[in-house]
Amino acid sequence: MQLFPIGSRAALRQLAEGSSRFGIIDTIITTLSNRETARGYHETLLLHGVPAEEVCEVLLYTPGHEKNLAPLAGADGLLCSYLITLPGCLPALSKLCKAEAINVDALCSTETQSLFQWLLPAATGENGSRQPFRTLQLHTRDLFDIGVRSAEFARKLIDNPGSAPYTEYLDVVSDSYENAIDADIFR
Known about the structure:
41% of the residues lie in helices and 18% in strands. The chain has 187 residues and is of the alpha/beta class. The protein has a six-stranded mixed sheet. Helix 3 links the parallel strand 3 and strand 4. Helix 1 crosses helix 2 and helix 3 packs across helix 4. It is globular and about 55 Å long. It starts with a helix and ends in a 7-residue tail after the last helix. The relative contact order is 0.16. The C terminus is likely disordered.
């Protein structure tokens, strides 16, 4: 998985949509892949003239710490490292920004999509069939595929003890929310 380009594509998409104040929502259990995606997002925005102070990063410590989102007030472009955190953030984000004006790019797994359908209605209490953001682009990776490929990679190294480790990239599928998953997730 080349994740720097995902962050870069997210920044370019949001700039094209007219976003001018940006933020990143991550958790304290962030991964190296999330950091690499955020780096692509930051660096691309900087290259396109967005001042560093217009890109704020918020770390969520545990569910219920959405009050930490205050630095995102007025943001209209967001990169969210975990799609699953959006339902809990929606009420606080709606008070800080116009949710319907925010362009969001979120990372998720195919497995999370199903879980998301179960959790979101309970978290938001809203009834409706449309996601609440101006745009929502999902960058999806398949955890099952990652597991299988990791096992195959380990097996190759075991079978060939003299071989040097190497990097193998996995696919990430990017698509709009409406095309990627059921349209009734945000209800």
